[in-house]
Amino acid sequence: MALVNCGECSAQISDRANACPHCGNPMRGGGYAEPARQVVTIQETGKDVKILQIVAVIFMLAGLALIYEGWGGGGMMLGFGLIAVGFIGSLYAKVVSWWKYR
């Protein structure tokens, strides 16, 4: 920070000042400009994709639970179906995430 002389009243003022505090004369440079702040992205994906991924994982876990419990032939097929739907939903979420937020 350097001191410069005001062109109007010859008082010493900061080179970062917008105007002279003694006489109000505006400075030529307009004062010190703050450096531009960078935008920092914290999260890459939106809530819609995250919710879809969570639902897909829930479907897969429910399918695994049905297969593990082995509720007869229908429960086993339903379990595999839930795992397949969860897997397809997970793949879809990955594609949407890539497409929207690349």
UniProtKB/TrEMBL annotation:
Assigned keywords, A-Z: Membrane, Transmembrane, Transmembrane helix
Transmembrane parts of this sequence: 51-68, 74-93
Protein name: Zinc ribbon domain-containing protein
Source organism (scientific name): Burkholderia gladioli
